[in-house]
Specification:
disordered N terminus, 3-stranded antiparallel beta sheet, single chain, globular, Protein Transport Mog1p, Chain A, alpha+beta, about 180 residues
Length: about 180
């Protein structure tokens, strides 16, 4: 009877643990392209689009964000923000990327930061750990006056699908200076 009880408990535990894995494997990744955003990427499902402005020390910046989740507590975002010429004239690309990083880290801790490039486009990749333990992997790419921010957010452990997400990003319809 003890052996049967242990077997039942182990089977139940295996099913509980397999639940999230099963949910994650059912996600259908699909290619998405934004003509206005001038990019394409793969998302886990159809992304939700939000447009608006966010307030910065230099003024309100128009921004569009695309977000999709994988059904296993991971979320993937692409945001692009168009900075006015007046802002770009005041900041070097490095200072703009510093300011964005500092804003992202305001409620967390910067775990790592390294340069990142895509063709002739330079940027940065950061790992940020939020106060609640959520891990944020962020890529920032500045193309002329447009800042692209790609983010994969998840509670540990890291998800292999983050590589799929970041690796699928491509710029379209613009020079990659």
């Amino acid at each position: 009877m003890t052996r049967t009880l242990i077997g039942t408990l182990l089977t139940g535990a295996a099913l509980v643990l397999a639940g999230p894995l099963h949910a994650q494997s059912k996600v259908v990744w699909q290619n998405f392209q934004s003509a206005e955003g001038r990019f394409k990427i793969a998302f886990p499902g159809e992304p939700v689009t939000k447009s608006g402005k966010y307030r910065t020390a230099t003024g309100d910046i128009p921004s569009t964000q695309y977000t999709a989740g994988d059904g296993a507590e991971a979320t993937y975002d692409v945001r692009y923000s168009d900075y006015p010429a007046s802002v770009m004239a005041k900041l070097t690309p490095a200072k703009l990327l510093d300011a964005v990083r500092d804003g992202l880290v305001a409620k967390g801790k910067l775990a790592s930061e390294k340069p990142f490039g895509m063709g002739k486009v330079a940027g940065r990749e950061q790992e940020i750990v939020g106060e609640d333990g959520t891990h944020y992997r962020v890529r920032l790419l500045l193309v002329e006056s447009r800042l692209y921010q790609l983010t994969a957010m998840a509670k540990p452990p890291a998800r292999a699908d983050a590589e799929r997400f970041f690796g699928s990003f491509q710029l379209t319809g613009m020079a990659q200076r």
